[in-house]
Design a protein that fits this description.
The complex is a heterodimer of chains A (about 450) and B (about 110). With about 450 residues, chain A is of the alpha+beta class. Chain A has twelve helices and 19 strands. In chain A, the strands form three sheets. In chain A, strands 11-12-8-7-1-2-3-6-4-19 form a ten-stranded mixed beta sheet, with helices on both faces. In chain A, strands 5, 14, 15, 16, 17 and 18 form a six-stranded antiparallel beta sheet that branches. In chain A, strands 9-10-13 form a three-stranded antiparallel beta sheet, with helices on one face. The longest helix of chain A is centred in the last third of the chain and has 18 residues. Chain A is globular. Chain B has one domain. The chains are: A alpha+beta (about 450), B alpha+beta (about 110). Chains A and B meet through helix 9, strand 14, strand 15, strand 16 and strand 18 of A and strand 2, strand 3, strand 4, strand 5 and helix 3 of B.
Chain lengths: ~450, ~110
């Protein structure tokens, strides 16, 4: 058994720094690379792509990345875990196999984890009388069933551990939890099982710390932000874990950013609910048991973590179509910038009313005055150099939202003076994919782990 | 005397549906008891006023010298439904750090050191 296992984070979200995973593989030693590509809204976008093109529906960035780093990973024995498969896991895995074959890599085992996609089964669940209710609002799935675009359960570390056990060197799945991508290698290497709840919790919290990429190594860090060095070359985080469940958060030597107790604390609290009950498919982790220690430059030790047995449920993330929205902006300049922007908003709203357009919500913000802190920002200076009026509408009637988008540009020649900032043309009408989180009994879900080989 | 919370703490915020979370972390260990005493759920609710439509919940993490707040009903529907610039609640951290907190003379002296 290895004494320490290094798990590196390569992507905090789909669209994160493309160079980060390459740096993780090339600028220092790691054993595993974990890559998170899925946000809540991503699955519905991928379902739509796949409806148009059955070959698509996964994160193609991942395939391009593997073309670049797979030879390094093979040479250095680095294994890769990712949820890049989206709603077409098999398609993604085939693309990775073809890429590996092109590169002349033989005998590469690719783990394919499926079973998260429950879109075709929702009707069956309701017919069988299984309650699927919104965890936040209590609303029943039956009310929105005809509008559902994607439905995926969050799978944990279990199938990933199985794939690693079968010799997989690259693992592709769909809706896998971010934390499971870090936990699974530690379970595999150290032989932890779903009875060692403190250890499972430790691996899960390690995952939470690195799942947002550089957000724990100096990015978006409030503490002493002005002095965090070389963010242009920020090092993404790495966990150095030990079999006893203690671990160190660090990054490669020579990279920018900073890992310290404060940067790790900020990330620990990110998107936190009740800290006693951090629930994943794998465990209930207790964040009030985490102890941090300064282990020197860019090294933070973590120990003391406790956990409780996991629940009988998976969380299922259901995306459904919930109307249309659009947001338009115009910029007004000194003098009286804020007064002009407010006048423009009044005129625009009066025109919308005269047109008889109705919306569920109309929201106006004045960027430079109140868009982030509302009334807490206080009154703006009379000499404020410019203000952006930002107005958005939302409703079920696509035509009404579309008509709204045609009312922004006319304000330039028919409203208050000294206005600009309309180079982009009419704002887009966007379909809203709302999110319906629910719980579903684990025994209804069958996960499948397959190995394909070049 | 009154000081802005930003003298005592740093923070990070994020979202879960229509709820924003703000983690408030003491800049020094000795500030944590002041946070516990002064930055209560009621005072945070009052600070945000109309910005937070629902309840405010507070959780204590003495091990990290930190408090976690859940601000329910503060993101205009949340996620993709929201029309707000900050639909993900990323700037609620700094909005909370604007809050005024009351310090004793001794605590105020400690702050200057």
């Amino acid at each position: 058994m290895k004494e320490t296992v290094r798990v590196a984070s390569g992507q905090g979200f789909w669209g994160d720094l493309l160079t980060a995973p390459v740096d993780q593989v090339r600028r220092g030693p790691i054993d595993y690379l974990m890559l998170d590509y899925l946000a809540e809204v991503t699955m519905s976008i991928m379902q739509k792509q796949r409806a148009r093109d059955p070959e698509s529906g996964y994160a193609r960035d991942f395939v391009a990345l593997m073309r670049e780093i797979l030879p390094d990973c093979v040479e250095k024995d680095i294994k890769v875990l990712s949820n890049a498969g989206g709603v077409n896991v098999e398609g993604c895995a085939d693309a990775i196999r073809d890429t590996a074959s092109d590169l002349g890599i033989e005998g590469l085992k690719i783990g394919v984890v499926t079973g998260d996609d429950v879109l075709p089964r929702l009707g069956e669940f309701l017919e069988r009388g299984i309650a699927i209710d919104n965890m936040d609002t209590g609303e029943s799935l039956a009310g929105i069933l005809d509008k559902v675009q994607a439905a995926n359960v969050y799978l944990g570390a279990g199938p990933l551990v199985e794939a690693l056990g079968k010799g997989a060197r690259v693992i592709v799945g769909g809706r896998l939890t971010d934390t499971g991508l870090t936990l699974a290698p530690l379970m595999h290497e150290f032989g932890w099982t779903f009875e060692d709840w403190d250890l499972i919790a430790a691996g899960t919290i390690a995952g939470h710390i690195i799942e947002c990429g550089a957000q724990c190594s100096g990015g978006n860090c409030q503490y002493d932000w002005e002095n965090i060095p070389d963010l242009e070359d920020v090092g993404f985080p790495i966990i150095e874990a030990r079999a006893d469940g203690t671990f160190t958060v660090t990054k490669h030597k020579g990279t920018g950013g900073r890992v310290n107790v404060q940067s790790v604390k900020e990330q620990l609290l990110y998107e936190m609910g009740d800290p006693h009950d951090y629930i994943t498919p794998d465990v209930i982790a207790d964040f009030t048991t985490i102890h941090l220690s300064d282990e020197g430059e860019n090294r933070v030790g973590v120990h003391g973590i406790k956990g409780n047995p996991n629940t009988e449920f998976y969380k299922v993330s259901i995306a459904y179509s919930a109307g249309w929205k659009s947001v338009g902006t115009l910029v007004y300049s000194y003098p009286d910038a804020y007064e002009k922007a407010k006048a423009a908003d009044r005129i625009l709203r009066a025109r919308l009313e005269k047109l008889g357009l109705e919306f569920d919500t109309v929201l106006t913000e004045f960027v430079g005055v109140n868009a982030t802190h509302g009334h807490l920002a206080g009154k703006p200076s009379k000499d404020i150099p410019e203000v952006q009026m930002r107005i958005g509408v939302r409703g079920d009637d696509r035509e009404a939202v579309s008509r709204f988008t045609k009312e922004i540009a006319p304000l330039i020649l028919t409203g208050p003076p000294a206005v600009t900032g309309f180079a982009g043309g009419r704002p887009k009408v966007e379909e809203i994919m709302a999110y319906f989180p629910a719980l579903i009994p684990k025994d209804l879900i069958e996960t499948k782990v397959e190995i394909i080989e070049t | 005397m009154k000081v802005e919370l930003t003298k005592l703490a740093h923070a990070r915020s994020g979202d879960k549906g229509d709820t924003a979370n703000v983690g408030v972390i003491a800049l020094k260990e000795e500030f944590y008891p002041i946070l516990v005493r002064e930055v209560t759920a009621d005072k945070v609710k009052q600070h945000f006023g109309p910005i937070v439509k629902g309840e405010v919940e507070r959780f204590e993490l003495p091990n990290l010298g930190a408090l976690n707040f859940l601000l329910h009903g503060s993101l205009g529907g949340g996620g993709t439904l929201s029309l707000m610039t900050d639909a993900q609640g990323k700037t609620f951290s700094t909005a909370l750090l604007r809050m005024q907190v009351e310090l004793s003379d001794e605590e105020a002296k400690g702050l200057q050191e």
